[in-house]
Amino acid sequence: MEQNTNTLRDDLVVEAPKDGKLLEVKDLRVSFFTPAGEVKAVGGISYDLNYGEVMGIVGESGSGKSVEAYSIIGLLQSPGKVIGGSISFEGQDVLAKSKEEMTDFRGREVAMIFQNPMTCLNPVYTVGNQLVEALRAHDKSISAEDAKKRAMEMMELVGINNVARRMRQYPHEFSGGMRQRVMIAMGLICHPKLLIADEPTTALDVTIQAQILELMKELQKKTHMGIVFITHNLGVVAEICDKVSVMYAGKIVEQGPVNDIFYTPGHPYTVGLLRSMPRVDADSYERLIPIEGTPVDMLNPPEGCPFAPRCEHAMKVCLQKMPPYVELGDGHRSACWLRVQEQVNAKKEAGTND
């Protein structure tokens, strides 16, 4: 049975909050070179993440969410390769780091929580052993006794009780929710400045999912870390994120503050995601509307907007040319020819009125 999340200890605050940009991704392009051809998994995405901010990256399976995350943390596997763009962390060029520098960078500066904790925890080692090993791999000066003490503190921090006994147990002796808490503890044990959470609540039931989200929000406020939260669940986005990047076919089609994305979406794909999601605040019964069609073939992506073949508003230009970003508000932009057309019409109307 799951335990309720414990109150976080005040002495575990890492440092005072900072201002400014923690992470900058500019025109990142990632491809997989397969025998069938080049799969353009990420096609030139850009976003910024400030200290203490939570960025949600939303999109269906195959949109490139996890690939860009693996690129940030240096875990992109062959035949995948970053072919363009830049990733800057606190002004450091991440892509220029050597393999040894990336090993030190992971865990100490950036940590990642993976989607399935059972495949990430070693079944033949105790949970305590794995937490201690993760800490000592990045902090050579810490003693085994102090590392064990820190590991127990982190388990308490993420809401696990009876930590002395739990430290001696193996992953199969933990429930799914508890294993996910262990993964969060492992990610946070070196006090990283950035946490990448790759759909950490997908395999959990809604009750445990709510507990994990509440835990992550509390940890984020307490430690002031930035979070990149990858998910396909817009309900999770509404719960935890400050701003959102909506990805489709390797491109960011819309970005903005979370309220703008939910209440004034600017791209048909975002509208489609919202229409296909049940709403608890609906005034009456509403039929969910699925997004028609199938995702594009990334071996042969379209010339224009990747969503055009599935878009009910598609025009001829949508199939021929990728639309530019149109600013819809403060920090809110969308790559859609409909928005371009609206902007042109608005300028014409303003000129007529003048």
UniProtKB/TrEMBL annotation:
| One GO-annotated biological process of the protein | peptide transport
Has keyword Calcium?
no
The residues covered by the ABC transporter domain are 23-274
Instruction: Give an example GO cellular component term for this record.
Output: plasma membrane
The GO molecular function terms of this record are:
ATP binding; ATP hydrolysis activity
Annotated PROSITE patterns:
ABC_TRANSPORTER_1 (PS00211), ABC_TRANSPORTER_2 (PS50893)
Topology in membrane:
Peripheral membrane protein
Reply yes or no: does the keyword Cell inner membrane apply.
Answer: no
| InterPro entries reported in the protein's UniProt record | AAA+_ATPase, ABC_Ni/Peptide_Import, ABC_transporter-like_ATP-bd, ABC_transporter-like_CS, Oligopep_ABC_C, P-loop_NTPase
The organism's superkingdom is given as Bacteria
Q: Where does the protein principally reside?
A: membrane
Q: Which residues cross the membrane?
A: none
Q: Where in the cell is it found?
A: Cell membrane
Record's Gene3D superfamilies?
A: P-loop containing nucleotide triphosphate hydrolases (3.40.50.300)
Which key words tag this protein in UniProt?
ATP-binding, Cell membrane, Membrane, Nucleotide-binding, Transport
SMART domains linked to this entry:
AAA
In which family does this protein belong, per the annotation?
A: Belongs to the ABC transporter superfamily.
Protein known as: ABC transporter ATP-binding protein
